[in-house]
Design goal:
Helix content: 25-40%
Largest sheet: 5 strands, mixed
Number of helices: 3
Length: 172
């Protein structure tokens, strides 16, 4: 959704919609945002990865993703790091535009505001992706039962209990 200043609210627009549009307009005015493009979905078949950022602010060479959550999180910067990884033309900056639907304000945070490079955001995303996939593989193996390691001897009790009783859970 790109907000056009000429948009006229209708009786069907909720307060959330009106405040969202107000927040986008405020961001555009505060930062002088004019020239934007809306990228198509990007895919890396080798990594089986796909994603679509909300927009590229062309003049600032910044990939921007909208959020309506109550705060900007580490996960948001991991996500834009993933989008950047998928981009053929690398952005100079990554940004989260948090839009408050309750009161119509915006919060705009870039990777540079956090002291991070685009490469660091991409690397953090890739490390998280690899960790997640390794976790899923181990969890799947544990659910199937013990792994056949080729050793015909009976396992000894090492005091750790059986693998399926360890109780590994995903981190929050």
């Amino acid at each position: 959704l790109w907000v056009d200043r000429r948009y006229k609210f209708t009786k069907y627009d909720t307060t959330d919609v009106k405040n969202f549009i107000k927040a986008v307009e405020s961001w555009k005015k505060d930062y002088g945002v004019n020239n934007v493009v809306f990228p198509e979905r990007m895919t890396d078949e080798t990594l089986q990865l796909t994603g679509e950022p909300d927009l590229i602010w062309v003049d600032a060479e910044t990939l921007v993703d909208f959020k309506t959550s109550s705060q900007v999180t580490v996960g948001h910067f991991l996500q834009v790091g993933g989008y950047s990884f998928l981009c053929k033309v690398k952005p100079l900056k990554l940004a989260i535009l948090r839009l408050d639907k309750s009161i119509g304000l915006h919060e705009y945070i870039t990777n540079e505001d956090l002291g991070l490079s685009v490469k660091q955001c991409e690397d953090a995303f890739m490390a998280t992706l690899m960790h997640y996939r390794a976790y899923q593989m181990v969890q799947s193996t544990l659910k199937r039962g013990r792994v056949d390691d080729g050793d015909d001897t009976e396992p000894t009790d090492d005091g750790l209990g059986e693998a399926e009783n360890i109780g590994v859970q995903p981190s929050p």
